[in-house]
Amino acid sequence: MNNKQGFTLGEIAITIAVVGFLAAMFLPMIKNAIPNQEQLMFKKAYYLTERSVSELVNDEDYYPEIEDDVDAKQYFGNTVKVVSQGRQYEGTTKFCELFAMRLNKASDVDCKAKTFTNGANPVGTLTAADGIVWILPVSNFANETTAEKIYLDVNGNKKPNCFYDKDKCKTPDRFTIKVYQDGRVEADGTMEIEYLNKINISKDSKAETSKVKQDLGY
User: Fold this and answer.
1) What sections of 3-36 are H helices per DSSP?
2) pLDDT at 17
3) Half-sphere exposure for 198 (CA within 13 Å, toward CB)
4) Would you say residue 132 has pLDDT above 70?
5) Could you tell me which of 38, 53, 78 has the C-alpha nearest to residue 171?
6) What's the Cα-to-Cα distance from 16 to each of 8, 9, 23, 25, rounded to whole Å?
7) Domain range annotation of the chain
């Protein structure tokens, strides 16, 4: 006589409920830990900014130290004219043009003091070959303690075209990086800091982040 019995409907219902509960609890955590494309593009841009700013601020050909004037602005505050490859760089567009020169550009840079849409200081704009729109400061970096800001739109004209807002934009594609007169670089904002510090649990994500650093020489 065969005494084997299948699962009852009650047991199946309980199993489904438990699986559903566990999925609801852990899937959002896993999803949040895996970086999305916008996060990876921001990281790429941030690493590139760190490297480019460091190289520029320490390049005596572009930003020579002024020794005979104790009141002279140093580092990026030194906006005196320099000539490189037959081209002049000076004034408030100096940083914008020199930084843009280090990007793999898909469009020419415009450092002619256009006003950014959020009412911030004048900026220069360009689109890189990877689709990132860079919005660069047009500034003389006169203040040692106040940072100038680089704005990024990591997917160009694609939506959502917004900075992080806990109510209106929880998955942004626009980010901000602060650059100081002495060459310090900092992430600016809650989401920027979170994206840089987030632990990547996905093997694919780790490989992608590693490749970005390798491409940039890290």
Assistant:
1) 9-33
2) 76
3) 25
4) yes
5) 38
6) 12, 11, 10, 14
7) 36-198
